[in-house]
Amino acid sequence: MGAPRVRSVVGVLSIVGAALLLAGCGTPVVTPKPTETAPQTSASPTAPAEQPSTEDVLFIITANVRAVGGRTVGISMTAHEPIPSTDTSATKLRDDFLSVCAAGNGSQPIDEAYLANQGSTLMKVDLSTNTPDQKFAEPLLLFFGSPYFAQAVVGSGVIPMPGGQTCFSGFEWTTSGSIHGIADFENAEGVPDLGQWRYGNYGFTVSSDSGATIEACKVTITDIGMKAGIDQVPGWDPSAAGTGVACGIGYSGE
């Protein structure tokens, strides 16, 4: 198996109490009984926003690009551990993938049965920006997964690259926002191989003659990613992730 070299993310509630001082002077008078008031209550604290799970994150790629007009936009790709396509936890991921890639590779449509027979594992990559709805000065070519198998992208601001089959020719990211990709990995033996993702490539690139750049490229590999043994796979060197027109990482073997 091979792949091309990379072309290269508290409320302080204050309760203010008041004390009432009753005083009298001159002829003694009967002091009226203080009026009883309802006890003060503090507002319920706002529940913190739900944070995405990081328990299955393998690595995160971040960089800066420019929008039309020169504004800097931060971009990121967060890769999650793949799961067998037949797993119950893969239902939503599988449905999203098939909604884009069901046409297959021309000779073979892709459906649930096909994925099961091919020992497919599906890997989710979350793509996000720090500023939404900005048109990139130059579209970003997204790469994630293996060129031998299909990839899907779900969300707005993305278009399939022209030529070939939709899920085999790549996707261009044109407008900032939050989307997600799904990479398919298949095993000729028909048994899911959860380690195949190590032989894929992941990241962003722009055309070298466009004049656009990808800056501040950074790759963070989590403990989960390291435990998968990627230090034994050629190409997984974060120090070599950025080239000025690409930011990414992955397999660079045969």
Mean pLDDT: 83
Number of helices: 3
Distance between the termini: 8 Å
N-to-C order of helices and strands? EEEHHEEEEEEEEHE
Gyration radius, to the nearest Å? 27 Å
Counted beta strands: 12
Helix-and-strand structural type? mainly beta
Biggest beta sheet summary: 7 strands, antiparallel
Shape: globular
Instruction: Please state roughly what percent of the residues sit in beta strands, choosing from under 5%, 5-15%, 15-25%, 25-35%, 35-45% or over 45%.
Output: 25-35%
**Low-pLDDT regions:** 1-52
Fraction of residues in helices?
under 10%
Overview of this structure, please?
It is a single chain. With 254 residues, the chain is mostly beta strands. The protein contains 3 helices and 12 strands; from the N terminus they run βββααββββββββαβ. The strands form 2 sheets. Strands 1, 2, 3, 4, 6, 9 and 11 form a 7-stranded antiparallel sheet that branches. It has a 5-stranded antiparallel sheet with strand order 7-8-5-10-12, with no helix packed on it. The longest helix has 11 residues. The chain starts with 56 loop residues before the first strand and ends with a strand. The N terminus is likely disordered.
